[in-house]
Specification:
Strand content: 15-25%
Oligomer: single chain
Number of helices: 3
Bound molecules: zinc ion
Shape: elongated
Number of strands: 3
Distance between the termini: 53 Å
Helix content: 25-40%
Largest sheet: 3 strands, antiparallel
Structural class: alpha+beta
Length: 83
């Protein structure tokens, strides 16, 4: 394999371990919940989810779960602490 390709692959492996380099500013996704599939999005205004519980507090278990998956790469929303 060409040495520059090998060099890029090695660099990608290193970068993949360094999540702090990435800042996800917009995102569209679907979330397969236990009963339905929901549309999730993230933009400058924050998270949005199509589920019925999102509207009440502007957060839900789906957005919180995805935020947790992408920890460090998306701006954190205010989440109530669970002790
Ligand atoms: Zn939701």
């Amino acid at each position: 394999m060409h040495s520059s390709i090998i060099s890029r692959i090695e660099k990608a492996r290193t970068y993949a371990e360094e999540k702090e380099r990435v800042n996800i500013t917009t995102l569209n996704a679907t979330f397969r919940g236990n009963h339905s599939k929901y549309e999730l999005s993230l933009d400058e205004a924050g998270w949005h989810c199509s589920c019925s519980s999102f509207g009440v507090r502007a957060m839900c278990s789906h957005t919180m779960a995805v935020e947790r998956m992408l920890e460090g790469m998306v701006r954190a929303q205010e989440t109530p602490s669970i002790s």
